[in-house]
Design brief:
By secondary structure, the protein is an alpha+beta fold. Helices cover 24% and strands 26% of the residues. A hairpin with a 2-residue loop joins strand 7 and strand 8.
């Protein structure tokens, strides 16, 4: 269930930067809390989603000294993001759309994509690399060369003539909701979209501009919450006059990501060797039968889904391993059917998430609550 190391590094770097930013704002920390979560579940209507990164603002209404009751804190989702190793963009957009549809307060969505020069595939039966499955397990050190050329720090990592990972580009995309509070993931207008590359060419200028807008909006939202709570004017003014800086150190992020490339390759090897294709996330699926409805925690094993012959040329992206759940409603019952037949056995890099399938396959305009 644990994501691959390369998944979490860019998200962790953004989390560190936003923590430094919010610490510089003197807001009321007993009533307002800003938290960045990595791979933490959030409830999305009738299903549970686990985005790679999301920002939650927790609002605790002020206590009434004259009452023995208190209001429950509200959790407000403001940012959400997905990170994928050679993932299908449509799949990540679909995941973001599902989350944003259930949480209209989301203001920004992120996609961090790792493009592979050579897509991950399992060793073919009969190849030299395939013999590793029956041989003694390799040590992690065998995947880490003592010295490599600087140009090879993102791969390829090759053992027994097989490529276990090879990253050609680390790409960032940031989407901002429109004036109607909706996301259009097909619109590349500069007012609501920015993109950049961290590797192989460092071009993050547009991303930095959008992130400045993102964090500026977060600060304004914090001040607005303080005003609505009736906090003393001096404290509100102090927060308004603060000048926090949001400056991710991109070269540090680049080094952090490159440092786990060999570890990710080793995870590929171990998962393939041990048939551990069960790196999924817990989900809740509504199952209705004989007029009754129950919410049950369900764990989906990829090994039970992927059944193709290992002799096939199985080139698979992480997005292709996503488990789609499509509800077919009738007058008296509904069926939950995983769209997983004939999926190839291959990548273990994916984190399978159960989700509803959107009309149009996830592309197009995401319409939030109240949008037409």
């Amino acid at each position: 269930m644990t994501p691959l190391p390369v998944h979490e590094q860019p998200a962790a770097h953004l989390a560190k930067a936003i923590n430094n930013f919010t610490e510089a704002i003197p807001y009321h920390r007993l009533l307002i809390n800003i938290t960045m979560h990595l791979n933490h579940c959030i409830q999305n209507k009738d299903s549970t989603n686990i985005p790679d990164i999301h920002l939650i603002v927790t609002v605790q209404p002020p206590d009434n000294p004259g009452s023995n009751k208190m209001e429950i804190a509200k959790l407000i989702l403001k940012w959400v993001g997905e990170s994928g190793l050679s993932s299908d963009t449509d799949c990540m957009v679909r995941k973001l759309s599902i989350t944003c549809d259930g949480h209209p307060d989301v203001s920004y969505a992120f996609i961090i994509s790792f493009k592979e020069r050579t897509r991950w595939q399992q060793p073919k039966e009969g190849s030299v690399a395939y013999q590793l499955r029956s041989a003694s397990p390799l040590d992690y050190e065998e995947f880490i060369p003592a010295r490599i050329k600087k140009s090879l720090k993102f791969g390829p990592v090759e053992i027994t003539s097989h490529t276990w990972i090879d990253i050609s580009e680390v790409h960032y995309s940031v989407f901002k909701h429109g004036t109607d509070s909706c996301f259009d993931f097909n619109n590349k207008d500069a007012a609501t979209f920015a993109e950049g590359t961290l590797h192989s060419i460092l071009q993050m200028g547009d991303i930095e501009c959008m992130l400045d807008d993102t964090t500026g909006s977060l600060k304004a939202y914090i001040v607005l919450l303080m005003e609505g709570m009736g906090i003393e004017q001096a404290a509100i003014q102090a927060a308004r006059d603060s000048h926090p800086v949001f400056r991710p150190v991109w070269m540090a992020a680049l080094n952090s990501i490159s440092s786990v490339i060999s570890l990710t390759a080793y995870c590929h090897y171990l998962d393939w060797r041990n048939h551990k294709y069960d790196k999924c996330k817990m989900t809740h699926v509504t199952i209705q039968s004989s007029g009754s409805t129950s919410m049950q925690p369900t764990t989906v094993s990829i090994s039970s889904i992927l059944t193709t012959s290992s002799s096939d040329a199985t080139t698979t992206s992480s997005a292709e391993l996503s488990l789609d759940v499509q509800e077919e409603r009738s007058a008296k019952k509904s069926k939950v059917q995983p769209d997983s037949e004939d999926r190839p056995e291959g990548s273990t890099i994916a984190k399978v998430k159960t989700k509803k399938k959107l009309d149009g396959g996830g592309k197009g305009k995401r319409k939030g609550k109240g949008c037409k």
